[in-house]
Amino acid sequence: xxxxxxxxxxxxxxxxxxxxxxxxxxxxxxxxxxxxxxxxxxxxxxxxxxxxxxxxxxxxxxxxxxxxxxxxxxxxxxxxxxxxxxxxxxxxxxxxxxxxxxxxxxxxxxxxxxxxxxxxxxxxxxxxxxxxxxxxxxxxxxxxxxxxxxxxxxxxxxxxxxxxxxxxxxxxxxxxxxxxxxxx
Length: 184
Prior knowledge:
This protein is 36% helix and 27% strand. The chain has 6 helices and 7 strands; from the N terminus they run βαβββαββααααβ. It has helices at residues 15-28, 75-81, 114-121, 127-138, 144-154, 163-176; strands at 2-10, 32-39, 47-55, 67-72, 85-93, 108-111, 178-181. β2 (32-39) and β3 (47-55) form a beta hairpin. α3 crosses α4.
């Protein structure tokens, strides 16, 4: 099993954190992992993306041009990465701020309204964990036990009290993700 993922959105949406948690969770589950962030100099508010590879085999290169899954959190990222999903792959997007929805017919498309849910819950910082929960529902490449360990490893100790909230957000995301187009 090898899963090649791009997570893309605005800086401040937790894009890099989501990738890091996924990568650490894979490491804790004895997978081979690559985590490669990319962000503009403006950081918060600018675009950010991270490539994560989780595999049972050695990862030969972290540099990719095509992905098994794209997790898209803003319109600029949709415009840039929709075409980069391999045929038969998965595109997951948050509907907030998306003006042009995915148009491809050769990939599986899911929508998760994580921004709306995080706002409704009054805790916008869990937005990225809601999205991660939706992704893991579709592609359970790491188990819940190892997500917990990944959260412990990637969050500073002063924020470990937030791990239960993050785990709840992951469970919420698993229930929120909706198929838009599923290939047979």
